[in-house]
Amino acid sequence: LTLEWIEATPVSDLAALVKESGAKACFAAASSTGKDLIPRVAALLDCTSFGDCTAITGGGSFGAVRPILA
Asked: Which pTM value belongs to this model?
């Protein structure tokens, strides 16, 4: 990927798609592109972004498991 592609990424279009679909979650790969996109999409949707998750829990509620590095 080039820097031009990252700068031209349609973050607002992705946020609109997530909102219109009624999605309860939006996932991306833990790549540099995913780590760039998801926080900006979350900011537009006024919600939380979870990064570097190692598991997703369900069963009536949503949870993300993240490693603790001490």
From this structure: 0.71
Q: What is the pLDDT of residues 39-60, one digit of tens each?
A: 988 988 999 888 888 888 887 7
Task: Say how far apart CA 5 and CA 23 lie, in whole Å.
Answer: 25
> Residue 11: which pLDDT band, with cuts at 50, 70 and 90?
confident
- Can you point out the beta strands (E) in the chain? 55-57, 63-65
Return the structure tokens found at 32: 């540099």
At residue 25, what are phi and psi to the nearest 5 degrees? -155, 155
Torsion on CA atoms 33, 35, 36, 41, rounded to nearest 10:
110
Does residue 33 contact residue 6 with C-beta atoms inside 8 Å? yes
